[in-house]
Amino acid sequence: MPSALFTLAKPILHSMDPETAHGMTLKALQAGLVPCCTVPNDERLQTTLWNRTFPNPVGLAAGFDKNADVVEPMLKIGFGFVEAGTVTPRPQDGNPRPRVFRDPANDAVINRMGFPNKGADNFRHNIERFLEKKDRARGVLGINIGMNKGVEDPAKDYCDLVQMLGQYADYLTVNISSPNTPGLRNLQSRENLVPLLTRILEQRAKSCASNMPPLLVKLAPDLTEEQLQDIAASLIEVRIDGVILGNTTLDRPEYLSAGMRQQAGGLSGKPLTQKSTQIIRTFYSMTHGALPIIGVGGISNADDAYAKIRAGASLVQLYTALVFQGPALVSDILNGLLVQLEKDGFNHISQAIGKSA
Ligand SMILES: Cc1cc2nc3c(=O)[nH]c(=O)nc-3n(C[C@H](O)[C@H](O)[C@H](O)COP(=O)(O)O)c2cc1C
């Protein structure tokens, strides 16, 4: 919705259950209530990675658009890329409600959604409709894939999704880091990770020979340095194309209210900012920048986005800050990044990557 409309609507939306408010926001976006914020279209921000051109390096993180309902309006808002999903092969309801909790005092959210989504058939239909549009907005489409709850063979779910959706994606993200699907984060261990990714990569080669999307892995921010080292070695061994660092955290900082601290699920937003920037910095140094990183976690202004880029991220994403600040946030961040570039004497955003790693 337009930014002025967001200012008017925010008190109403934020008086509702977060998921109901989110549903209304999606409906408004689908109905064409899309902001007309002026977004800088500046070559200094245009980023080419994996042979894809991102109009700017700021993307919408997974989870906002689980069913690929609003890819077009979110690109119109000014995001350089939209990561739709997490989608699972079969539709599922997710955990019982309520399962999303806002903490406005700390610009934070806790969610334990558990991948509610309408499944891969519906997702494919929506993507096809988006791709058919003649004058569609510029930008890159990422597809974030996950397994259904309780499956015996997670790799089969991921492979089925690569087969069904891989051809439509500018990049694919293997989500193995949401804390709300039992067993999912165990896929990050070396003995699980290498066989899983090997099967997915084989499936990609089979299903997407003519348009091979880069394959990324989304990791948790709660990994120890030792775990991260192991994972980095595995990812390089199997030749993964990039990583997303990271998902929500299981941390519960003391300054959160008692009510928030006791909620199960993943914490996102401001309390995650420093932690995710640090893990990006560690991963970048460990790998000497060999694997491109999408940095995500608690970005709520241009300084946060720039810090992640300087720590080693080639691109960044956000979700939670959008809930609190509305769509004008995107142009604010892009304009702020241009100011930062000028301050540092860079003439392109890529020059800042890893400068403070
Ligand atoms: C309500 C909610 C739902 C989310 N759902 C997903 C999801 O389905 N898949 C995923 O990979 N990440 C999901 N995330 C995590 C975000 O993509 C992101 O990694 C995390 O929230 C940190 O970024 P932020 O602090 O900018 O929100 C979700 C986050 C929130 C707040």
Quick synopsis:
This protein has 357 residues and is an alpha/beta fold.
Core attributes:
357 residues, alpha/beta, 3-stranded antiparallel β-sheet, globular, binds flavin mononucleotide
- Encode the helix/strand succession as letters: HHEEEHEEEHEHEHEHEHEHEHEHH
CATH class: Alpha Beta
The count of DSSP E runs of length 2 or more, i.e. the number of strands, is 13
CATH superfamily: Aldolase class I
Name the CATH architecture.
Alpha-Beta Barrel
Q: Helicity range of the residues? A: 25-40%
Class computed from helices, strands and strand pairing:
alpha/beta
Shape: globular
What Rg is obtained from the alpha carbons, in whole angstroms?
19 Å
The amount of beta strand, in percent, is 15-25%
The stretches of 5 or more residues where confidence is low (pLDDT under 50) are: none
Bound molecule types: flavin mononucleotide
Give the rounded overall mean pLDDT.
95
CATH topology: TIM Barrel
| Distance separating the two termini | 37 Å
Number of helices: 12
Largest sheet: 8 strands, parallel, barrel
Spatial ordering of strands, largest sheet: 3-4-7-8-9-10-12-13
